[in-house]
Amino acid sequence: MTKTQGRSDVLTVSSRHRTDAIDITELVQERVTEAGVGDGLCTVYVAHTTAGVFINENADPDVPHDLLATLDHLVPWERNYRHAEGNAAAHIKASLIGTSQSIPVRANRLELGRWQGIFFAEFDGPRERQVHVSVIGR
Ligand code: ZN
Q1: Predicted structure pTM score
Q2: Domains, in order of start, for the chain
């Protein structure tokens, strides 16, 4: 029988604009280090309907910029949406990006590619958000 150990934490992220991408890679790695499970899996989960999380290049800040700009183009803020709250575009973008990512952990390090970073994606900011980080070991 395998003993499973783990840890779950909540990060608070403050977005600065209506649409924003915030690199949370180091914050997530800190939680993985604290969990100390050795080898396992880290899940990053956003419990919001107008925000998400994605993994992509964090070396060139133009990459997340272009990603958000393209989403703005594909899903304009103003359109004849039915959702009366006025933020339908944010809901749609959140569903396109998704609410979680799972990253393998080896020797207490996130197994990200050389150019990969984890980004919190805001689509209806600015506001304070919560990101759940769960680390389980095997
Ligand atoms: Zn809404």
Answers
A1: 0.94
A2: 5-137 (2.60.120.460)
